[in-house]
């Protein structure tokens, strides 16, 4: 997008006017609104800015925030929330935040596990730019592509693709309320990852706003920045406006199943076997395992047990699936009666946990089915975990009220893509990924107890997961791994968590950050740091 010289003259004029007003009692939000109107090509309604004093503030703040831990009264709140209606509004918000020295957080879907899109723990005051009104989706079936705005949910994207074709899809998240702006920046995995890779592996182009307030597409930003935004984590390099994604073929019929095994049914041995085969199965088959304690039944003397749910999607029909399972994983005992043949879009609803017979139109509501107080962590596994170690794991899970583990299989296409193809490095040699989650309902009352429990569980698992580094998934953000400090985004400190998320790609991400955002305008608790200015020119 090109702008006339008049636009830049207006920007300069706005800065002069704002500096002149700095000696008056004009509030920050008033200065921001003045600046927005001077820097946007389209007028900006006053209703797009909501301050803490307004009755709608809490409802807007909470609208897409997923982790209730970060909505507690003790957590910092933004001075105001700006909900832009057009790209030019977003562009103006970046220009004005930079001119006024306002710290900015960007929210597309509110799913950041540590609330970084709507809370700043290291820097106040701050504001939120909420992209929820920018959610257009333009699907081009002939071109096998779609342009999707950052505020759209991945469920909306799936629906709009399926609306035009029952043999096209997109390989991204299982949770349908994820905002695509942040989701794809971390990788974006789903049930088709073993067939087609991640969402980030299937991005053709993007539109972003850089630290200077310029809108750039792939050609304008160059391949280094385009590489960094596809897996390098959100809100470090620019503000994502939209992605151009590549559609992938899906069969008219897919098959889903969920098979439950508890300890009394040999769950430990079956899970040990799953670890040996999950990454080697037919790449059309994705079987994840959901592990959690189950309450005892009605019979007297029954103990609480562990359940393992084998939750799967197969890109094909039941007959072929049963052949694959009989050949590769007969231990699960899958039968025809366990299998449900359906369409790809309805498999999205199934894996997303919606009740059977839920119409696909529910995806257009973009509402989350998961809002809790929670803490999560992640691991990647390179060798099967022994049955003895699993038994120790069960003891720890049974000691907590509402723990959850999800094991996601790798292999297939994930093993064929180079670790450096995108910043997402968890590729060949990874058997599966573990997500640990602990949820609770009583706010801050027993938070310390639950946080201590998951940290101890994480320590217990250390011998059985990846090492040097102990890898982690950036979209399962975990501040236990380390945090930047205000005005001190240290390369050395950031390397501790950066190498866990990105392995050797972290160093390239730092070089890209240094080149495109040397002043660290886009920053948060775990943003990529720029190199100190004296090192800039001889290292980039």
TrEMBL record:
Q: Any keyword Electron transport?
A: no
Gene3D superfamilies named in the record: 3.30.465.10, 3.40.462.20, Uridine Diphospho-n-acetylenolpyruvylglucosamine Reductase, domain 2
Q: Which cofactor does it need?
A: FAD
Q: Where located?
A: Secreted, Cell wall
Q: Keywords in UniProt for this one? A: Cell wall, Disulfide bond, FAD, Flavoprotein, Glycoprotein, Nucleotide-binding, Oxidoreductase, Secreted, Signal
Main location, first listed in the record: secreted
Question: May I ask which residue range the UniProt record assigns to the signal sequence?
Answer: 1-25
Any Pfam family from its record, for instance, is FAD_binding_4
Q: Where is the FAD-binding PCMH-type domain?
A: 74-250
| Alphabetical list of InterPro entries matching this protein | BBE, FAD-bd_PCMH, FAD-bd_PCMH-like_sf, FAD-bd_PCMH_sub1, FAD-bd_PCMH_sub2, Oxid_FAD_bind_N
A GO molecular function term, named singly, is: oxidoreductase activity
What does the similarity note say?
Belongs to the oxygen-dependent FAD-linked oxidoreductase family.
Q: Which PANTHER family match?
A: OS08G0158400 PROTEIN (PTHR32448)
Q: What name goes with this protein? A: FAD-binding PCMH-type domain-containing protein
This chain's source organism reads: Dipteronia sinensis
């Amino acid at each position: 997008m090109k702008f006339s010289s008049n636009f830049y003259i207006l920007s300069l004029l706005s800065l002069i006017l704002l500096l002149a007003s700095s000696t008056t009692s004009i509030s920050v939000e008033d200065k921001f609104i003045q600046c927005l109107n001077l820097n946007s090509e389209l007028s900006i309604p006053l209703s797009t800015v909501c301050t803490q004093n307004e009755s709608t503030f809490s409802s807007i703040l909470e609208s897409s925030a997923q982790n209730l831990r970060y909505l507690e009264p003790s957590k910092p709140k933004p001075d105001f929330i700006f909900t832009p209606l057009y790209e030019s509004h977003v562009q103006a918000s970046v220009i004005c935040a930079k001119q006024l020295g306002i710290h900015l957080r960007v929210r597309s879907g509110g799913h950041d596990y540590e609330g970084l899109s709507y809370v700043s723990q290291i820097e106040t005051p701050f504001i939120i730019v909420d992209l929820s009104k920018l959610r257009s989706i333009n699907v081009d079936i002939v071109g096998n592509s779609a342009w999707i705005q950052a505020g759209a949910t991945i469920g909306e994207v799936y629906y709009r693709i399926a609306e035009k074709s029952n043999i096209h899809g997109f390989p991204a998240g299982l949770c349908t309320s994820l905002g695509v702006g942040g989701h794809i920046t971390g990788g974006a995995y789903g049930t088709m990852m073993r067939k087609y890779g991640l969402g980030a592996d299937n991005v053709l182009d993007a539109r972003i706003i850089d630290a200077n307030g310029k809108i750039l597409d792939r050609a304008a930003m160059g391949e280094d920045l385009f590489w960094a935004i596809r897996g390098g984590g959100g809100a470090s390099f620019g503000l994502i406006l939209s992605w151009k994604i590549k559609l992938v073929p899906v069969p008219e019929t897919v098959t889903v199943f969920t098979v439950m095994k508890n300890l009394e049914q040999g769950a430990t041995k079956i899970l040990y076997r799953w670890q040996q085969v999950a990454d080697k199965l037919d790449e059309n088959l994705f079987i994840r395992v959901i592990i959690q304690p189950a309450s005892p039944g009605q019979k007297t003397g029954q103990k609480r047990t562990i359940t393992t749910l084998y939750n799967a999607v197969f890109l094909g029909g039941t007959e072929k699936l049963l052949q694959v399972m009989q050949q590769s994983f007969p231990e699960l005992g899958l039968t025809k009666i366990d299998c449900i043949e359906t369409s790809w879009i309805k498999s999205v609803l199934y894996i997303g946990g919606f009740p059977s017979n839920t119409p696909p139109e529910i995806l257009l509501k973009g509402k989350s089915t998961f809002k809790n107080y929670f803490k999560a962590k992640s691991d990647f596994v390179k060798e099967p975990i022994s049955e003895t170690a699993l038994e120790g794991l069960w003891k720890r899970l049974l000691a907590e009220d509402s723990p959850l583990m999800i094991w996601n299989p790798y292999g297939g296409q994930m093993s064929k893509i180079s670790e450096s193809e995108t910043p997402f490095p968890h590729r060949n040699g990874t058997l599966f990924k573990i997500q640990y989650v602990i949820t609770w309902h009583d706010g801050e009352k027993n938070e310390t107890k639950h946080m201590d429990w998951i940290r101890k569980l994480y320590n217990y698992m250390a011998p059985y997961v990846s090492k040097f580094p102990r890898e982690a998934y950036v979209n399962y953000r975990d501040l236990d791994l380390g945090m930047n400090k205000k005005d001190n985004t240290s390369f050395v400190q950031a390397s501790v968590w950066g190498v866990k998320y990105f392995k050797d790609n972290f160093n390239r991400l730092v070089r890209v950050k240094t080149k495109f955002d040397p002043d660290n305008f886009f920053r948060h608790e775990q943003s990529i740091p720029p190199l100190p200015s004296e090192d800039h020119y001889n290292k980039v």
